[in-house]
């Protein structure tokens, strides 16, 4: 028997691979709709990009579609919108890309329609970022041919089979430097490995990303922190020198002699990801709900928690000193708060995320202060959550577990038990009933002879401080504590 040429064998493997992955392609509601479009309007359209990639890698179809057409994208968009009673609009005027969105009822979907970029569909596909995104299916031929025909000019099918990420063209990163970061994000989300040349080019061309707008970098980073595998991807940022240009404030971690802040921070991030999948989430469903909740920006609390875990010790390099042969980091929490705010401001993540992260960084030792008390009272526990605005205390408790695991190489049973005790207190006591203040404003003015104004607030905060330290437990100890403080104020 004559052996088939290698090119024929490759074509056979490609067809078989996609036949298994795309067995239900013709049954997809949007693909059927696009086929009707070709029949009724005589418009040629191609299904491209991520929807084909995801079907091949995951064996299921997403509801986010990308289509290119040889005819006007607006005509295609308005036709689809009319069929579903959906909204169509011009998303990118510069490139004439239209979007149709249907968020209510059934089916729900998003479809982007773009003109072919080039003289042919093959030229369009060769301009795309990575080979696994450079695939297309001709909708008309899909229903005319008994075999599935996938347009694959860059060899993306074999890369999908190998779960490998490869640049479509050698100048791919120069054409859009954001692809340097997107490559790592795609590897994380789809469990891919970087092809050797692509990996080398990322390391060599990392400085190019300096020219990318902060908003675009922010979007990629938030996606990275929103999915599992964040710690592995951040490690890659360091290995491939991207961190030097994306998060230059963290680059000094490599040179921090005497204390391996890089390893500790990456390990804390890794442990923070583990905490989000921990037994605690099963024991406290409301805790899992907390981290799954979305901020107005659409980012989950879990993603922001992981970002704070990475940055929690970012103030240490600037404050590190050796005193009597021991490393000290006095004020690293305050410096960390300042630095984290600067980082997030530069990335333009928004005030809400910045405030959450910087507050966690500023207070990440508060849990360890509380656990040192012999037996923290309910008032001390209440103050812990009050000082953090309530639910942010949940983030601090979980960060405490991650930080301890990263530091000690394992679980701290005493800390873990205390965190559970604090969680029970939060969900069963704190959120249902708030204790009355030890001394209210009128009592403070009467006992200490001060007038209504800022001094009353200062005394209240001093009492709360005493509660957290375990010094203040009732009215008598509060009065004594404040009087001692006032003596110092007067003598100073």
Task: Describe what you observe in this structure.
- This protein has 492 residues and is α+β, with helices and mostly antiparallel strands.
- The protein has four domains: 6-162, Beta Polymerase, domain 2 (2-Layer Sandwich), CATH 3.30.460.10; 164-246, Hydrophobic Seed Protein, CATH 1.10.110.30; 268-429, no CATH class; 441-491, no CATH class.
- The chain has 27 helices and eleven strands.
- β3 and β4 (97-102) form a beta hairpin.
What topology does this entry show?
Elements lengths: L5 H16 L7 H13 L3 E4 L1 H9 L5 E6 L3 H12 L2 E6 L4 E6 L6 E7 L5 H6 L9 E3 H6 L5 E2 L4 H6 L2 E2 L6 H4 L3 H12 L2 E2 L1 H10 L8 H12 L4 H10 L3 H4 L14 H15 L3 H5 L1 H8 L8 H11 L4 H4 L1 E3 L2 E3 L3 H16 L3 H13 L2 H6 L6 H10 L4 H17 L4 H18 L10 H8 L5 H16 L5 H17 L1
Parallel strand pairs: 2-5, 8-9
Antiparallel strand pairs: 1-2, 1-6, 3-4, 4-5, 6-7, 10-11
Number of strands: 11
The coarse overall form would be elongated
Quaternary structure classification:
single chain
Strand content: 5-15%
Q: What is the rounded distance between the termini? A: 101 Å
| Average pLDDT rating | 89
Give me a quick take on this structure.
This protein has 492 residues and is an alpha+beta fold. The chain is built from 27 helices and 11 strands.
Summary tags:
492 residues; elongated; Beta Polymerase, domain 2; two-stranded parallel sheet; seven-stranded mixed sheet; single chain; 9% strand; 27 helices; alpha+beta; Hydrophobic Seed Protein
